[in-house]
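Q: what does this look like with magnesium ion bound?
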Amino acid sequence: MPTLRMEGVTFRAGGSVLLHEASLAFRSGELTAVIGPSGCGKSTLLKCLTTTHRPAGGRVTLDGKDVWEMRGPYRLALGYVPQDDVIHPQLTVAEAFEFSSGLRLDTDLPPADVRRRIGSTAAALGLAAAKDRRIRRLSGGQRKRVNIGIELLAEPQVLILDEPASGLDPGTEEDLVKLLSCLARGGRTVVTTTHSMEYLAAFDRIVMLAAGWVVFCGTRPELLAHFGVAHEAEVFKAVRAKPAESWAALYRRSPLAAQALRN
Ligand SMILES: Nc1ncnc2c1ncn2[C@@H]1O[C@H](COP(=O)(O)OP(=O)(O)OP(=O)(O)O)[C@@H](O)[C@H]1O
Ligand SMILES: [Mg+2]
């Protein structure tokens, strides 16, 4: 089973360390949430995973191979939905999907198969009725789903999403988490950042960052137990009570850290 791994990944920019020696394993078939306060390094961690950022130290591997050394094929196996939308707002949904399939899909795929794949992806994301609308006229949630859809067309082995649920109402957000969970169950490695603590139970694994340090990795019950709180809403407050570095040291000494790296 392919596992995406970070081994002691450090990233620096503008004279400061934005990510401190992060060691984590993201397994296929699992959905991981990356959480933490604004500015703690969530997007930075994802950018290290996607080869957008080159770490100053440590390495990222897929199946034991350094992703920087096989950057071309790795990027083909990867779907990345960044925090800011990247598709042209003047295109219609159908045009955006066609454009993306032209870029990302195997040219040997018969046009009928391409159309079928576009249709089923749009339907899975609840976009079938909006397919002829221009992207600039869509709601924030619909636009986010188009961004996810254009990555899903290529059926990536690894799917990485940065705040896909921002701006969604709670019902739509819950649907999105279920969709991501389904995609993971299908054998993909899915990693997403989220601001919302509401659906943590739906994630196989939660990674928490504070000030660029990994302060936790485990399940929701383990999260509550580790920070000694009754509810996830209290986790950030508990983390603020001590320096991030000391939480990171506590985490590294705990059995959770070893468990997070096991295959
Ligand atoms: N290129 C850069 N140079 C210097 N500092 C940066 C750079 N990019 C981000 N930062 C800083 O690094 C820290 C982490 O940023 P990052 O975008 O990873 O946070 P985040 O957890 O994704 O925040 P948010 O929840 O607001 O999206 C922030 O303090 C940010 O200001
Ligand atoms: Mg971010």
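The radius of gyration is 19 Å. The chain is about 40% helix and 25% strand.
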